[in-house]
Write a structure and sequence with these properties.
- InterPro entries: Kynureninase, PyrdxlP-dep_Trfase, PyrdxlP-dep_Trfase_major, PyrdxlP-dep_Trfase_small.
- The protein is an alpha/beta fold.
- It folds into two domains: 138 residues, Aspartate Aminotransferase, domain 1 (Alpha-Beta Complex), CATH 3.90.1150; 234 residues, 3-Layer(aba) Sandwich (Aspartate Aminotransferase, domain 2), CATH 3.40.640.10.
- 37% of the residues lie in helices and 12% in strands.
- The chain has twelve helices and 13 strands.
- Helix 6 links the parallel strand 3 and strand 4.
- The longest helix is centred in the C-terminal third of the chain and has 22 residues.
Length: 419
């Protein structure tokens, strides 16, 4: 068993525990905690899988028993199954700063990255006539975030092969200097999945546009945790998952954003009958539908899709806003870093998450030599975060259900685990 804190640490724990209680008492979002299925475990892994909203099981039961069990095929129309991808896209839109009609929900993040990236290259080449009559340079290069989640890199490599592009991996900070007249598309993460670093979406999007290329943003670690501003900042294309801060459930479908003025030119590399202008016409020739529907491919996963729709209801509660969630997120991560500094032995961990609010997502990543073993022991002690090789302890803070007492306890247990 690990040793308790030393006397000075115990005094600090009393003070910080008291502060946590005061912060929770003043927290306007605290009542939302009751809308989730939680227990005595301190759950700080919502950046991997969000907690279950309490009303979702009943909604899914209705989908299974009544909509599927009784109405059966009639539910495509009578229960709104057919229009669910766009309807739920419109529910997500305000959470990422987009107007309605620009987001379609379906498929995985990986599949949507592929659609977006190939479509971006095709539009870039169309802009300059691919070096032909348009007179511009050939757009034959894709830039990808060198720190990206591996799948984005794999997809970018495949998209580059398919389109005959060269692929260049650069850090987000290096993007402005790497752009050129051969750049077709740039794939970036809004928040680094390992460190929690928030990248400059407005500035990098402007830089990409200045060179005539298209920006594709991965919002997996930002949507539902902080403002994104897709429309405000003129983002071309964006993708994201829904099982993290949006609490859609394991494997819940991802989404694809296509800016409204680009929709007539969005040429998906995965045309399917669901995105056909006349899906039940059964034509042999493909004719794309108009609007965000072009992002659809095949039959949507209705059970997961409607579980996600139910989960999004928590955002309809009075007083809930992305701005408020962001304010609490920063307060939670600030408080966690303070508690870690007060409790954890000096030199035992190092934060790799930026201290500056403008550069921080909604997680804290701590470098620790034996991080894998430490996280196992934390989980055994009732504090759930996760481990990323080779040496990172990752703690995600979902403001809808994480409180300040959770944060203080997590830091205290971490200190004892490392003691």
């Amino acid at each position: 068993m690990s040793e308790p804190l030393d006397p000075a640490g115990e005094a600090a724990a009393v003070d910080l525990a008291g502060e946590a209680r005061r912060l929770d008492a003043a927290d306007a979002l605290a009542p939302l905690r009751e809308r989730f299925v939680l227990d005595d475990v301190t759950y700080l892994d919502g950046n991997s899988l969000g907690a279950l909203p309490v009303h979702v099981p009943a909604r899914v039961d209705d989908v299974v028993r009544r909509q599927w069990g009784e109405l059966r095929i009639r539910s495509w129309e009578e229960s709104g199954w057919w229009t669910a991808p766009e309807r739920i896209g419109d529910r997500i839109a305000p959470l990422v700063g987009a107007a309605a009609g620009q987001i379609v929900v379906g498929d995985s993040t990986s599949v949507n990255v592929f659609k977006a990236l190939v479509a971006a290259v095709r539009m870039a080449r169309e802009d300059v006539g691919d070096g032909g009559e348009g007179g511009g340079a050939v757009r034959d290069e894709i830039l990808v975030d060198a720190t990206t989640f591996p799948t984005d890199g794999y997809i970018a490599e495949s998209a580059a092969r398919m389109t005959g592009c060269a692929l260049r991996a650069v850090t987000p900070a290096e993007v402005p200097g790497a752009l050129g007249d051969r750049t077709a598309a740039v794939l970036l993460n809004h928040v680094d999945y390992r460190t929690g670093r928030l990248h400059d979406l407005p500035g990098l999007t402007r830089a990409v546009h200045a060179c005539g290329a298209y920006a594709v943003w991965d919002l997996c670690h930002s949507a539902g945790a902080l403002p994104v501003g897709l429309d405000e900042h003129g983002v071309d294309l964006a993708v994201g998952c829904t099982y993290k801060y949006l609490n859609g459930g394991p494997g819940s479908p991802a989404y694809l954003y296509v800016r409204r003025d680009l929709q007539p030119r969005f040429d998906s590399p995965l045309p399917g009958w669901n995105s056909h202008a006349e899906p039940f016409g059964m034509r042999s020739a493909y004719a794309p539908a108009s609007g965000a529907v072009r992002g659809r491919v095949g039959t949507p996963d209705i059970l997961s899709l409607l579980a996600l729709e139910a989960a999004l209801d928590v955002w309809d509660a009075d007083g809930v806003s992305v701005a408020g969630v962001r304010a609490k997120s920063l307060a939670l991560t600030d408080f966690f870093l303070r508690c870690v500094g007060a409790y954890v032995p000096a030199g035992r961990v190092e934060s790799v998450t930026p201290a500056a609010h403008a550069e921080r997502g909604s997680q804290v990543a701590l470098r620790c030599d034996d991080a894998g073993e430490v996280m196992k022991r934390l989980v055994e002690s009732g504090v759930v975060g996760d481990f990323r090789a080779p040496d990172v302890l990752r703690f995600g803070f979902t403001p809808l259900y994480v409180g300040f007492a959770d944060v203080e306890r997590a830091a205290r247990v971490l200190a004892r685990t490392l003691g």
